[in-house]
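Section 4.2 – Deliverable D4.2 (structural model, holo form)

The reporting period included a commitment to supply a predicted holo structure for the target in complex with zinc ion. Inputs used:
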Amino acid sequence: MELIFLGTAAAEGWPGVFCTCEYCQKAKDSGGENIRTRSSMVIDKKILIDLTPDTYLNSLRHNIDLSKIKYLFITHSHQDHFYPQELHMRMEPFAHLPEDAILDIFGNSKVTKIIEERIDCEKAKIRLNTIHPFDKVECGEFSLLALPADHAPDEESLLYIIKIDNKTIFYGHDSGWYPERTWEKLKDFYLDVAIFDCTFGNNNQRQGHMGIMAIIEAKELLEKYGSINNKSICIATHFSHNGGLLYEELVEVLQPYGFKVAYDGMILNV
Ligand SMILES: [Zn+2]
Ligand SMILES: [Zn+2]
Ligand SMILES: [Zn+2]
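Output (structure tokens):
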């Protein structure tokens, strides 16, 4: 199974779209892994998690044919995860797609309602699927379980456990400290890959998002529950300039605790 991290930043990107802070300037000066676009991930070039304002450009950069994506899972409706206008581009004359090129989109009721209101799904060859926390999706090649997050209180923000090729991935952002019922469910799984929300960086908050301290604690708890062990790949992502640590600094802090620091274009073969 191949995971490609298309973007690894929080809402504003890093450098932030309009930001003049010192951390955005540092990111611009150092380039490379410090240039971060809005977060999304593609699995086996077939399953896309989140459609962001940067997904199109990232698909060109990483040789991903978006017309071949069969399943799109949206975590929540925030603009860095959900850019519904782009779905217009599936319609004629913007796209010439074969008749059977159906895109199955899964998301919470806020997400699917927005798509329903704005997009002609039949013309765009979209099949909408509203899902709720603890819903399971079986798609033959993979299965997925949605879990609740402590994020975006006006909607059911979702985290995903995806089983594919006998491997299990936890897509855990935007999360905040997981709600109790999410912790309970996580105990049932062994995770080959666990992806954590490290938006706050050095800032020790855990409501809505997490930072370094919180993800270290979360990893320790998951170890205690047997959900991860030293063979699991733990990844920190969704970084904000307000976290204050550049890529190399993040690696210095997080590597000793067993985390990989995600960057745009990072490929993981599991
Ligand atoms: Zn976000
Ligand atoms: Zn900034
Ligand atoms: Zn969000």
